[in-house]
Specification:
This protein is α/β, with parallel strands linked by helices. It contains 11 helices and 15 strands. It comes from Sphingobium nicotianae.
């Protein structure tokens, strides 16, 4: 197979991914062997590139968002057959999707939405799973009185968080964005209100207080101290990044709950991984019904130069929606 791979962890200035001929992956009994047609880039790709080096027997292949066609199925696989079009986010502990072939556990895979091509489908899995697990799998009940703040409305995760909350709950959704293009994008995703970075003051101007939940998708440390004052008693904070400090004492008086989301946890620990396949199947239904739209904003032929530019945009924080690479 062809794959973009590297050997030693490195920064984006020393971008070292090269297109290589590597042995085809051998699927296990629970695996699908997928011919990858398109894969999307995510911030996690850049983080792993900077921290993970190759093992003794294999270089590192990044990528945890893909859509493609099943070529073979393992002995214990059910629900899939060769020729099926599928999409998935993969397992961070295994070789990724920057390759023409990938072996992936069938329990975290779903059939591709029929209304989307491979590039549009590849943009959705990781961010949709992250948003759904953070906002909708934590036992939180949303009502018409619920006011939810999404920090980073134009990012990949924020874009899906807005859409899923609007599609599946009656909550009022407020998103942050600071540039004209990100403000427009957040509104297009369905946000009821879009505010800038001076969150407390702008919420006050809107007349919004006592937030039911806040989902911080980026730069959590910049907002942490403000959160207890923004949430109502027994409110919820969801985070996905890794702030340097997390002082929890101010959260006690209002009995606030903090949920730390990590989309790969189910696959890593074998903790109900089939829930991810089921969620992607549900997402496909929402897409085909016109209730969720793809967040792909750019598609490029899969080349080293395109990958480098994509990683640079992710690290600079300038990407809107999702960047997708296509093998076709």
């Amino acid at each position: 197979m062809k794959a973009f791979a590297y050997d030693a962890a490195h920064g984006v200035a020393d971008f070292a991914l090269t297109l290589r001929d590597l042995p085809d992956p051998v699927p296990g009994p629970n695996d699908l062997l997928v011919a990858v047609k398109a894969f999307a880039l995510n911030p996690v790709d850049t983080k792993i590139r900077k921290t993970r080096s190759s093992s003794a027997d294999a270089p590192v292949i990044l990528g945890w968002d893909a859509a493609g066609v099943v070529e073979a199925v393992g002995a214990d696989v059910s629900g899939f057959k060769p020729g099926d079009a599928v999409y998935y986010a993969g397992d961070v502990g295994r070789a990724g999707s920057y390759a023409t072939l990938q072996a992936v556990n069938h329990r975290i895979v779903a059939h591709k939405p029929a209304s989307l091509d491979f590039a549009d489908a590849a943009a959705l899995p990781l961010t949709a799973l992250t948003a759904h697990e953070a906002m909708l799998e934590r036992g939180i009940t949303y009502t018409a009185d619920s006011r939810v703040l999404i920090i980073g409305g134009a990012g990949g995760v924020g874009s899906l968080a807005i859409q899923l909350l609007k599609a599946l709950t009656p909550a009022t959704v407020i998103a942050t964005a600071s540039r004209p293009e990100t403000i427009a994008w957040s509104k297009d995703m369905g946000a009821d209100h879009v505010i800038g970075r001076n969150v407390a003051a702008e919420l006050e101007t809107l007349g919004v207080g006592g937030l039911h939940a806040i989902f911080i998708t980026t730069n959590t440390g910049d907002y942490w101290d403000a959160v207890p004052g923004l949430l109502r008693p027994f409110g919820h904070l969801m985070v996905i990044d890794e702030p340097a400090t997390m002082d929890m004492k101010p959260f006690k008086q209002k009995a606030l709950t903090v949920h730390w989301e990590y989309m790969f946890a189910k696959a890593m620990f074998g903790f109900h991984p089939e829930e991810q396949g089921a969620m992607l199947a549900k997402l496909g239904g929402l897409v085909d019904a016109g209730k969720i739209r793809t967040t792909r904003t750019r598609t490029h032929p899969a080349t080293v130069d395109a990958l480098r530019a994509g990683h640079e945009a992710l690290e600079a924080g300038t990407a809107i929606g999702k960047i997708v690479m296509s093998w076709d």
